[in-house]
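Why do we care about 3D structure at all? Because function follows from shape, and shape follows, mostly, from sequence. That is the central idea of this module. The next example makes it concrete: a single protein chain, its amino acid sequence, and then its structure expressed as C-alpha cells.
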Amino acid sequence: MTVTASALLEHRFADTLPELSLDWQAVPAPSPSLLALDEDLARELGLDPDWLRSPAGLRFLIGNDVPEGARPVAQGYAGHQFGGYSPRLGDGRALLLGEIVTPDGSLRDLHLKGSGRTPFSRGGDGWATVGPMLREQVMATAMHALGVPTTRSLAVTGTGAEVARETLLPGAVLTRVASSHLRVGTFQYAAALVAGGHAPAGLLDRLTEHAIDRHYPQLTDADRPGLALLTAVAQAQARLVAHWMSLGFVHGVLNTDNVLISGETIDYGPCAFADTFDPSAVFSSIDQGGRYASGNQPRITQWNLARFAEALLPVIDENVDTAVELASEVINDFPSHYDDAFAARMATRLGLDPETADRALVKDLVELMQTEQADITLLFQDLTRVAGGEVGTFADRPAYAEWLARWLTHHPDAQAMATANPVYIPRNHLVQAALDAAVAGDLEPVNQLLDVLREPFTVRAGFEDYARPAPSDFGDYVTYCGT
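And the structure:
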C-alpha cells in the first residue's frame, strides 16, 4: 500500500479555527532512521507498517514529506504552568500534520514533537532527543494496554542530528496520535484573544462547537453548549485521574496546557509509576514544591477545570453572574465525581461490583497501602491469588488480616481481578535502563520492554524480572521534561 492520496490528511482544525494556528513546516532531518513503531496503531490508522519503514514513510513520519493538500500547523494555546499564567505557549517544537480518517471512520490527529522551531518556540531550539521521545513511546504503549485513555505514540524517528542539552544527545521526532489536541489551554488562548480584541467574538463559540462535534456529539443540541461541554470534560477528567490514581501513575506536569478536552492523557515528560503507594510521590525534577505530587492530582485537576470554566464563561451565559453560578456548580461537583470514579476503579481491581461495593472497604485498603508502603502492583496480584483460593504473601501480615477477612466475605471474583490487575507496569528502573541503552545505540532493551508492556495482564515465562520491584540500590528516581 502506497500512501500518497491528498485525502490522507485533512485540516479541519486549521480551517475551522484559523485564529488558533499558524501554517508551518517541519525542519528537514539529515538522516532519519526508525527507532520505534507501533504496527498495531499504524494498521488502525490505515497505514502500512512496511511503507512507514521505507525512506518515503520515514519522511512522512517526521513531516518532511506530507501528502499533497495537507496543511501542517503549529497550534496556539495558553496555560497555567505550575500556577503561573503564560498567555502564549503553543507548539514550540511540535506540529499538527493534520487529521487522518481511519478505516472505521473515526478522526485522529497526527502530531509531531521535536520537529524544529516554530513561531511559538519562545527561545527554545525546537528539538527533542531520543531518550524522552522513547519514554513517550514506552509510557503511551503501557497506558493504552492498561486501558487508560491516552494519546498514543505511532513512531519515534531518529533525525541523525545532535541536540545540545547538558551534553550533545541524538535527536528524535515523536509521531503522536490523539483524538485531538484541544486543551484547556486552547480555550484560555481563545478567550484571551477575544478579550483583547485580537479575534472575533464568535471564536469561543466556534471552538466550543468544534470540541463538541469532535468529542461529545451527543451534546450538539444542548441548551447551553458551553455548560454541557464543561460538565462532560469535568466528568471525563474525573474518570481519567481516578484511573491514574488506582494504578499509581504520577503525571508530573499537570499544567492546563496538558489537560485534553477529550479526557486522554498527554505529555509523558516527567512522569512515572510509583512502585509503592505514596501520595507525596514526586518524580519531576522541576516540581520542587510537590504541586503535582501523586496525591494532589485530583485537587489540581479540579483547579485546572476551574480555569477551563473561566474561559468558557462567555459561552455559558451572556450574564456573567449567571455563568459563574452555573460553572461553579460543575466545578464544585468534581470531587464527588472523582470519588465515585476512584471507588469504582478500586472495586473493579478488588473483584467487586462497582455499583454495590463497600466503600469503607476501599477506603481502609487505601489507608493500609499508605501505612504499609505497599507495592501497588504486587499487592493486587497477591489479592488476585487470594481470591482464587491460594495463600497470599500478605495473608500472614497482621496489618492486613482483619481487612482480608472482611474483603473475602464479599466473595471477590478472581477471574475478573485477573483482567483488571496488571502483572507488568513500566517500572522505573526498567524504563531508565532501557532508555540509557537506547541513547547509547542499543534498542533491544526498549523493544523488549515494549513487547512486555503490550500484554500487561498476561503472565509470561521468562519475563519474571519485569514483574519485580526495583533493586534496593536503585535509589530515588528523578525524571525530566526533556526540553
